[in-house]
Design goal:
Elements: H1 10-15, E1 37-42, H2 50-60, E2 63-68, H3 72-81, E3 90-95, H4 99-104, E4 108-109, E5 133-145, H5 146-151, E6 172-175, H6 181-208, E7 212-214, H7 217-224, E8 239-243, H8 246-251, E9 263-280, H9 286-296, H10 299-304, H11 306-309, E10 312-313, H12 322-327, H13 339-357
Parallel strand pairs: 1-2, 1-3, 6-7, 6-8
Antiparallel strand pairs: 3-9, 4-9, 5-8, 5-9, 5-10
Helix pairs in contact: 6-13
């Protein structure tokens, strides 16, 4: 979801007491790289247990170096701009809302990762070309601060249309579709719901109802959302575009464990996001890149992902932690759009959205 985009959820994990990846990789693109180093390029949300990456390093003989490039949309744009001299060997975190942009730019070298047979066909959006490998999925949804709605004796919204009601005026913060993958996914959810002809009118009404737009998930969730532990309740927006798997992050580390998470999910506002990894074309360490991509799809890494990035593993045989299943929300019928529809219309939709909402 895609993860997340995940979510940009490593920030959530850090709030909850999970140690962010540091020792196994550097974000300094100026570091010297040799044949025994394999470099992973990703968005800011990439996170993994040190012990898990250390096991890969010991088994493979490669040191993992990580370069984080901002939100998912920003990271993909940087990868495209540097494609003739790629920053690394593997890219992690391009999702189905941005996939065609990377494929059309020729970012990736085809490679069929080991373990792909354990990934459901519905997640394999490039199953014929194997230019990218599905690694996780999640649902982008509006999250709400339970305490706010309890205190105000107001039922939280559950659908896209609910967000237009006067009782929710000025309560929602979302991300910029042009700079944030969750923001784009939310826009695509409104398009899937209201159609290609109806979504602009929906956004005009949402703007009139006081929606706030910020550039990134981190800003929206950690700075503006009142239910964020990272923001310590300083934000004044009780509604935020985030992930269906965000609530477990707000519970992690709390003792005694609460009966429910302090945040909830508006289940009728969700869009399915799938995240992929791929071997970058022109990679200086292609052999190491293939080994790393195999590892990202291994059960070891896949089972580490849920509580590190708060996304669902792509492998159907990977075990998901009880905390994740207990406090997360399973979305039975998320909105979706065909990849070819996104490919055909995405750039124009973003321009149209920007003109409607940001001006």
């Amino acid at each position: 979801m895609s993860t997340t985009s995940r979510i940009t959820a490593a920030a959530l994990a850090a709030v909850a007491g999970v140690t962010a990846l540091a020792g196994c990789g550097s974000s300094d693109s100026g570091d010297r790289v040799d044949a025994k180093t394999v470099t992973l390029v990703s968005h800011d949300s990439f996170n993994a247990s040190k012990s898990v990456l250390a096991a890969f390093e010991k088994e493979s003989g490669y040191k993992v170096r990580v370069i984080r490039g901002g939100d998912a949309g920003e990271a993909v744009n940087k990868a495209i701009l540097s494609k003739d001299n790629p920053q690394g060997d593997v890219f992690f975190g391009i999702d189905n809302t941005l996939l065609s942009r990377g494929l059309n730019a020729g970012l990736f070298t085809p490679y069929e990762a080991k373990g792909l047979g354990s990934v459901p066909a519905g997640l394999q959006l490039d199953k014929d070309g194997h230019r990218v490998t599905p690694l996780d999925y999640g649902d982008i949804c509006v999250n709400y601060d339970r305490a706010y709605f309890t205190q105000h004796r107001l039922a939280p919204p559950q659908t896209f249309d609910d967000l237009l009601k006067p009782q929710y005026k000025g309560l929602l913060v979302t991300e910029n579709s042009a700079t944030s993958s969750p923001g784009l996914a939310f826009q695509l959810g409104t398009i899937a719901t209201h159609g290609e002809a109806g979504w602009p009118d929906y956004w005009k009404k949402l703007k009139a109802n006081g929606v706030e737009v910020v550039n990134s998930w981190e800003q929206a969730y950690n700075e503006r959302f009142s239910g964020s532990a990272a923001g310590k309740g300083k934000g004044d927006k009780p509604l935020v575009v985030s992930y269906a798997s965000s609530p477990p992050a707000e519970v992690m580390g709390k003792k005694p464990a609460p009966k429910e998470a302090p945040t909830g999910v508006a289940t009728g506002t969700c869009f399915r996001q799938i995240e992929f990894g791929g071997l970058l074309k022109g990679a200086k360490n292609e052999k190491g890149g293939k080994a790393l991509l195999d590892f990202l799809l291994s059960k070891t890494f896949q089972e580490d992902m849920p509580l590190q990035m708060f996304v669902n593993p792509a492998r159907k045989d990977a075990t998901v932690p009880e905390l994740f299943t207990r406090y997360g929300t399973a979305i039975e019928k998320p909105t979706t759009l065909a990849p070819e529809t996104i490919t055909k219309n995405r750039d124009q939709w973003i321009k149209q959205w920007s003109s409607l909402v940001l001006k």
